[in-house]
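From the pipeline queue, job 12 of 40. The input is one protein chain; the requested action is below.

Action: predict structure.
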Amino acid sequence: MPLLKLPAMLAAASASLLLISVMSTPAHAVNCSLSYYCYRSMTPGPAPETSTTPATPARVRTAPNGDRLVTRPRTPRNRPNASANQNEQQRLAAERRAQQQREQQQRLETQRRARLEQQREQQRLAAERRAQQQREQQQRLEAQRRAQLEQQRQEAQRRAQSEQQRTPQNNHRATPTVNPPTAAVNRTPSTEEQRLAAERRALQQAMRERNRERNRNQAQATPQPTTPTPPASNNQAHHQTNPRGVLNANTTETNAASCNELIDRQKEVERDAIIAARERRRQESQVLFRAAAELRLQARRQSCPLP
């Protein structure tokens, strides 16, 4: 019996060895010339008819029995992508450079705007300081001018009061007055006009007192005649009985003295006005010039010979 089973066992062993050799041999080394299905069963990878990517013919290495063309689809693994990666890197680098340039331009623009804003603020502060200094200087000048005017007015009032105290009441002369125009009378004077009028009155009073003092000094310096009085003649007796001629002579002498006084006062006031104008005392010079004009008008009304 065992001898009868020996050929069968040998046949089975040879078949198993053949199957093992076929299974261990690579698929492309198997000569499947029987059918296409046998070839596909022994070939790894998807079938060309089921692939979605277009297959390009490529020459591949086959079994030692020869070379043959095999249609195999390209997979993403064996697709060339080095140039794509390089292009992507270049694009990213260009974007980074553009972003850096934009950020740098934004920083420069911010710095430029900050500088311009700082310059404008400095110019505004400088203009405010200059305006404040000008206002303070004008206020100081105005205060000095008012102090000078107040001092001059007080000085004129003190001089007038001192002259009034020293001068007897019987030596006071009546000063001709000028009637103001109707419009000036009806109009209410302002504070500035009242102040100027007060200054003008004080100045005129001071000038009158000065002229009285000068006339008194001249009268004291002039010696009195010591010659005896001649006897009165008939004409003198006639004049004593009828003193019209004496009155006329006294009136003429009084008018001449008044004209001389007006002319002297006018000259003195004009000289003081010119001095005040040279010293840049504008308001005082204006007041003096107005007083000189009024004196000239009074002399003209009295028919005085003007120089």
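Job complete. Residues 62 and 78 are 19 Å apart (CA to CA).
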